[in-house]
Amino acid sequence: MIGAGELVYEYPGKRALDSVSFLLPAASITALVGPNGAGKTTLLRCIAGLDEPYSGSIEIAGIDVLRHPREAHRHIGYLPDHFGLYAELSTRQCLLHAGRSRGLGGEALDARVVEVATQLGIVDKLDDKAGSLSRGQRQRLAIAQAIVHRPSVLLLDEPASGLDPESRAGLSELMRRLRSEGMTLIVSSHILAELEEYCTGMLVLQQGRVVEHRLLEQQTAQGTGRMIRLRLAQASTRLRELLAPHVSARTPLDADTQKASFEFSGGDDELSALLQSLLAAGLPVCELSVEQASLQDAYLRAVEHDRGGVS
Ligand SMILES: Nc1ncnc2c1ncn2[C@@H]1O[C@H](COP(=O)(O)OP(=O)(O)OP(=O)(O)O)[C@@H](O)[C@H]1O
C-alpha cells in the first residue's frame, strides 16, 4: 500500500506538488501520467524519501517515509529518469554494490545477483563493464539494481525509454510478474499504450495536482468506462439535451447536433434504454459504437476537462 496525504512540494518560486493525496492498493501497478512539468518526478522522489515535501504525509507498507526514511528505503526500489551507473564496474559489481548498500551480503547476494540479472536478460553481461553496455542494457541493469533487494514498492521513472520493442515487451512481462509476487509499482511514462498493457490504475497529475485517479481493473469488472460514439442521419438540436443525463459525471460530453462521443457508466440495459429514448424522441440514429475507453482517451479527457476544454 502507498498512501500520500496533502503533499506540498516547492522549488524556489515554484509549487511543484499542490495538496496531492491518494491511496494505492498493495500488489497494484499505477500509471503516473501527466504533461511535461506536471510534477511526476518530484512526486516519485518524495515517495522514495529523496526529497522532503514542505508538508503532508507519505506512508509505504505501514512506514511513515518522512519520519523513517532509512527504514522506508529498505522497502523501496527507485529507477530515476536519468540514472547513473558506475561505468568502470562490471554488471556483477554494480549489482553487488546495490545489494550491499541495501544490507544484503554473502552467498545469498551472489545468488540473487545471478537471479535478477537472468530476470532482466543481462546474465551474459555479468562480467562486462557497465560502461560498455548499450543504452537498453544499461537501462535493464539499472532496473535490476532497483529490485535486487526485493523491495515491496517499486518506483520507475520512464523505464521504457531507450528500450527496443522486444525489451519493452520483456519489461511489461517483468512488471506483471513483480506484481504477481506482491510488489506495488508506480510507473511514470508518456507511452500510454504500453502502460495500458499492465497497469491496474492511473493517476493523472497536472500542474502539481491530481486531476484523475481511476482503478482500471475495477472499471473493466463493472463494465464502466465505455466510450459511446453516436451519429444521426440528420442533425437534431435535441441531441445534447437527450444525452446529458446518461453521461458519466466525471467526463464531458463531446457533441454537436449530429454526432456525439462520451463516456458511459451504465450497463447494457441502461444503454438499450438510452437508445430507445433517442429513437422514441424521433432522433434518426444511424450509427452507434461502443468501445472500452483506452488509457489515452481517459487521460486526454481528464487533462482536457481540467483545462476547461471540451464540454
Ligand atoms: N530543481 C528545480 N528547480 C526549480 N524548479 C524545478 C526543479 N525541478 C523541477 N522543477 C519544476 O517543477 C515542476 C515539476 O517538475 P517535474 O520534473 O516533477 O515534472 P515531470 O512531470 O516529471 O515532467 P516531465 O514529464 O517533463 O519529466 C516543473 O514546473 C519544473 O519546472
From TrEMBL:
It comes from the Bacteria. Residues 2-232 form the ABC transporter domain. Transmembrane segments: none annotated. Keywords: ATP-binding, Nucleotide-binding, Transport. CDD domains: ABC_DR_subfamily_A. InterPro entries: AAA+_ATPase (IPR003593), ABC_transporter-like_ATP-bd (IPR003439), P-loop_NTPase (IPR027417). One of its GO terms (molecular function) is ATP binding. Belongs to the ABC transporter superfamily. This is ABC-2 type transport system ATP-binding protein.
